[in-house]
What we know:
The chain is α/β, with parallel strands linked by helices. It contains 14 helices and 13 strands. It has 3 domains: 2-138 and 347-384, D-Maltodextrin-Binding Protein, domain 2 (3-Layer(aba) Sandwich), CATH 3.40.190.10; 154-247 and 404-444; 260-344, 3-Layer(aba) Sandwich (D-Maltodextrin-Binding Protein, domain 2), CATH 3.40.190. Helix content is 48%, strand content 11%. Keywords: Glycoprotein, Ion channel, Ion transport, Ligand-gated ion channel, Membrane, Receptor, Signal, Transmembrane, Transmembrane helix, Transport.
Amino acid sequence: MQSILVILSVILASESCCSGWSLWDNSNTHLVVTSILQEPFLMKVKTESAVKLEGNDRYEGYCKDLADLVASALNVTYTIKLVNDSRYGAIDRNSSTGWNGMVHELINGDADVAIAPLTITESRARVLEFTTPFMTTGLGAIIKRMPQSTSGFLMIFAPLSFGVWLSVIAVYLLFAAILYLISTYTTLENLTIFECFWLPIQHMTLQRLEMSPKSKSTRALLTIWWFFIIIVLANYLLSLNQFMTESEHQLTEVDDLLRYSDVEYGVLKYSSSYEFFQRSKKAAEARMWEYMVQNPHVFTETVAEGIERVRESDGKYALFVNSATIEYLNEREPCDTMKVGENLNEEGFGIATRQNSKLASRLNIAVLQLKESGLLFTLRNKWWFDRSQCNSYPEEEGHKHITLSKLSGLYFVILLGLFIVAALYSFEFYLRKKEHEKAIEQEQNNVHKRQGEDVIPLT
């Protein structure tokens, strides 16, 4: 920051000498600067509890750095004063000045300058003097970032995770192999290896069976397979329907908000965004304003409140706010917000003073010099992009498809069912063995009996 101030001093000094007019020639030595807490424009410095900061050192942010640069240019000192009612400034008939927020404090003489994300509007410009915009922005909509939809042919595979698809194939091969083993060592079944692999597919596609199993273990095995495939199919179809619905519910333009009745949208109450919709003559924006008036719960008291609502709404609430704020929030953890479409308008933030203030022209020249020197661009990068916390976004994780962990109970049932099949097969094997032993014994008895009948008695 000190290096920036040095560069600014050199630039301003050189331009002042050439123009024959000194930017530092100012009778005011100390200014009261009104502002408002909003990331990243002005924030309270987070310190350890034992460390106590005082004065301007309590704050940081874009507007704090901008105030330092402007104060250095004007050769004055200043004190940051947070606006009493936490508002930017809107017409208020109950106020002595007819305004609230920072506009009221400037008109009322409670502050000399407002350095904040204060939008230059026609109504404000009638009662205040603004510098050239130190930041150009626009009104946009921010909404929770939703995972990107899988489209095309791959959508049919998206409802189930790769692990679930592999498990379905593994269970199919396991059941076909067990069916073949049962058929091989059971006299009741006479299935070829092709039939052992085809029979589970008939169950999976809910076709009429071409063969009817006879042994209890085979019937139990196919029943468990049928139960498994029904549960998997039910989850697959429900998830597929959700995928297809979400793919049709993607918001790409601001006008898309009018298409979906389940998506709410609002603005900061009594802000420049509020005034924009109130005065707009465009059909789409007029419909949005009518909707917001009919549903007053969509308005928010602060930007922080609105952003919290956006993040908790799971894509069902959008907030209209300046695009500079949207760009900042999109680069902050948990990296779950996104901008919808393009800006609705073009607007700017300016430093404001009272009308006919001697500071107005000097402030305007200071902002112009900061802009031409590239220092405003440097500040923008410092607080927006150099501190970005987002290297990846939620869409890389994909949709909430069915995973192995969600079907863990089903696999436990399958394992239990295989134990039952094994028990039934063991019981059938035991019965067949007993029947076989009994048949052998009966055959031996018959042989002995025939041999006895064939003996000729001696006379």
